[in-house]
Structure formats: structure tokens, C-alpha cells
Amino acid sequence: PKTDVVFLKVHKSASSTVMNILFRFGETHNLTFAFPMGGGNQLFYPRHFLARFVQGFSPRRPQRFNILCHHMRFLQPEVQKVVSRSAVYFSILRNPVQLMESSFVYYKGASAFSRAHSLEEFLSHPYLYYNPANKDSHYARNLMTFDFGFNPNGEVSAKRVQLMLEAIEASFDLLLISEYFDESMVLLKEMLCWDLDSVVSFPLNSRDSSTKSPLPDTIVEKIKNWNRLDWEIYTHFNRTFWERIDRDIGRERMQQEVKALRQRQAELARTCLQGTGSVAPKDIKDSSLRPLQHGSAKILGYNLKQGLDKETERMCRRLVTPELQYSSALYKKQFPQKHP
């Protein structure tokens, strides 16, 4: 199994679920994480990543960390200073239409969104609300482009798009697609030579469907135009994602692998969870398992079954621990003398 991994955690793209997978693998195999200085949950985002943002990094005697997975704005030369040269780089993308809708609800407090009553209102006159100079403007336009380190307000020329795609391809070994999460996990498992249980997960940081609403086609087109760079990235890598499946795995075997993954997930849900799945924040009984509530989204969580044996309880708890709590626990383990 490969143990040196860089995951670019793109916002609102099922990336918290992927992070939980990396946390569990790292904890089980005693790997080191490149934590933000002082144990925060972002690597000084939205600034471009610098090696010195990592706790325990020193340019004089550079220490290599196994896993880099906290939110950052990608800058490869700096990333290379904190991980080994053989590290595997991957990220996850989401359809920019759903991404924008999710961001609007989750980052409602951001300067571009706070005065718009609806996404529709924002999109009808974006420049009434959006000012690229504001330091939180990246949440409102081409968020994936921004997280990959590029200018979200750059012109959309064929040449520029091509250079951006080539740069991403040169840096990353695999780009997952959140709409095909299970297929993505199978590809990840194959690339990292991990076993099935290492990539099984329950959805984390997902929001209650009561705050979701279907978008009319006119809005969909406006979102694509407003986030044209994200749209170009997404459509390109959605295509290469399926090309890779056809080349490396084949559709038939992929179906079998996905089936096995879902069966294992259902089995773990029966073992671990009260009820069959996620619950509203107010119904989470154990406050240490309550995810951070943000914007006007209701972020769901889980209740563990009572009376599990110690070993099972530990495994189940890891699967449902929200990212902030898990990150903090791992930080305390890696730096026992420093408390965030």
C-alpha cells in the first residue's frame, strides 16, 4: 500500500468524506500528517500554500510528512518540500452547477452572497454583489479553479484553458468525480493498493435535503457561464475519469467492485449506526459527533449503536467522527505537548 499521499481538498465536493478515509488510514498505519501550524483546520487558506504553514516543518532539516490533506490553495513547489518525491497526488471535482448551489447556501455569510436573497438574484446581476478584490470572493466564482491555484477571474480563452488543464494533469495522478463517488473510491483503492475497508465511508459534512432545491435550466446555464473555468476543468476530467476506468478496470469489473463496496458499507451501517443513516443536527445524541453547522445549511451527522464491543466501537466512531474533531484528535496524538 502507498503511504505518501497529497489530497487537494476542493471545497464542497465530498472532500470531507475523502479526508475521513485518509485520517483513518493514517491513524491505523501510524503515519504523519502535515497539520496546519497550531492545529487549525486549514493551511492558511485562501493564501497559496507555503511549506512553513505546516507544524514541525523547518527548512534547515526538512521533515517529510506522509499525508497532506487539509484545505489549501495548491502550489506544487511548496508542497514538494513537505512530502516525499514519490507521493501520489489526487483531488476530487464536482459539477460546478451543484457546487455553486451548495456554496451559496454554505457560504451565505461571504461578502458576495450575503446581500443576495437567492442564487437567482445573484446570477442575474453578479457584479452588483461580487467584488473580486474582497478576500472571500473566491467562494462565489470558479472555486475549483481557485483551489487548484489559478486565477478564478482569468479570461476564458482556449489557450488559457488548455494550459490550466495541462498543469493539473502534470501535477495530479488522479482526479475523482464526486457524482461518481463509489467508482472514484474503487479507482483510488486501485491506485494506492489499499484494501476495500480502507475506502469504505459514510457521507460526512453533507446537508439536509430540506435546504436543497432543483434549479431551472436558465439558472443552470447562468451558473456554467459564470463558472466557465470550473466547467472546463470538470468536463475535461469527467471524460478522462471514464477513459481511465475503461483502460484500467473495465465497466464490468467496475460494477462488481462498486457492488462490493456498497455491500460492505451497508454491512457497516447495520453494525455501527442507530437507524439506517444520517440524522439532523438536533438529533445527534453524542455532542462530540456533531459536525460544525455553517451558513444556512443543516449539516447531518450520525448516532452510534449502544453496547458495541470496544474494538467495533472504535472502528465505528472513526467512520462517523466529523473532520474538525478527528483532525484535532490526530493533532494531539502527533504533537502531544502542543494543544490547538
TrEMBL record:
Family matches, as SUPFAM superfamilies: P-loop containing nucleoside triphosphate hydrolases (SSF52540)
Membrane topology label: Single-pass type II membrane protein
GO molecular-function term, one example from the UniProt record: galactosylceramide sulfotransferase activity
Gene3D superfamilies: P-loop containing nucleotide triphosphate hydrolases (3.40.50.300)
Protein name per Swiss-Prot or TrEMBL: G3ST2 sulfotransferase
UniProt keyword annotation of Membrane present: yes
Protein's gene: Gal3st2_0
Record keywords: Glycoprotein, Golgi apparatus, Membrane, Signal-anchor, Transferase, Transmembrane, Transmembrane helix
Tagged with keyword Membrane: yes
Gene Ontology terms: cellular component: Golgi membrane
Localization, UniProt: Golgi apparatus membrane
Family: Belongs to the galactose-3-O-sulfotransferase family.
Gene Ontology annotations of biological process type: glycolipid biosynthetic process
